Amino acid sequence: MKRICLLLCGLVLVGVCSPTALPAQDTKVHKIMEAKLKASQSLLAGIATEDFAKITLSAEKLIQLTRSEEWAIIKTPRYTMHSDDFRRTAEVIIQKAKAKSIDGVTLTYFEMTMSCVRCHRYVREVRDARAPELRTNTVVMH
For residues 19 and 130, what is the distance between their CA atoms, to the nearest angstrom? Predict the structure, then answer.
């Protein structure tokens, strides 16, 4: 059951953190999302194998990415809140890994995944509001 939960969380994270989840208009954003996906996959592998060193290194990499200039793709208070939430959960993952709490790491990983989902949804909303022609779910009637 635990492995199924980890697999489902991983699949959600892969879909959410995929570079195609955001428009590939900016290669810097594309590269940082690829790095985020790679670190997230490494983190999930660490969880699956209970490799606390790998978990810690992966979470540290995610925190490092949040501090890069390319990370801040939208300059709004709400985006900052989402980014801070993501960083906070990565920091808690490190704390749980140091305490050798695999359940704590796993639950916080899920929380981090949810922060990704919320942020990516917000970025899409902002993008769609700024450029209605980019909406894929819009039906145009003449």
Answer: 20
* 31 part of a folded domain: yes
Q: Distances from the Cα of 124 to the Cαs of 11, 101, 106, 119, in angstroms?
A: 20, 35, 27, 9
Q: Count of domains in the chain?
A: 1
Q: What is the CATH number of the domain that holds 24?
A: 1.20.120
Q: Are 55 and 97 in contact (CB under 8 A)?
A: yes
pLDDT tens-place string over residues 49-104: 999 999 999 999 999 999 988 888 888 999 999 999 999 999 999 999 999 999 99
| pTM of the model as a whole | 0.73
Are 82 and 119 in contact by the 8 Å Cβ rule? The answer is: yes
Q: Is 139 inside a domain boundary?
A: no
Burial class (CB in 10 A: 0-12, 13-18, 19+), 100: exposed
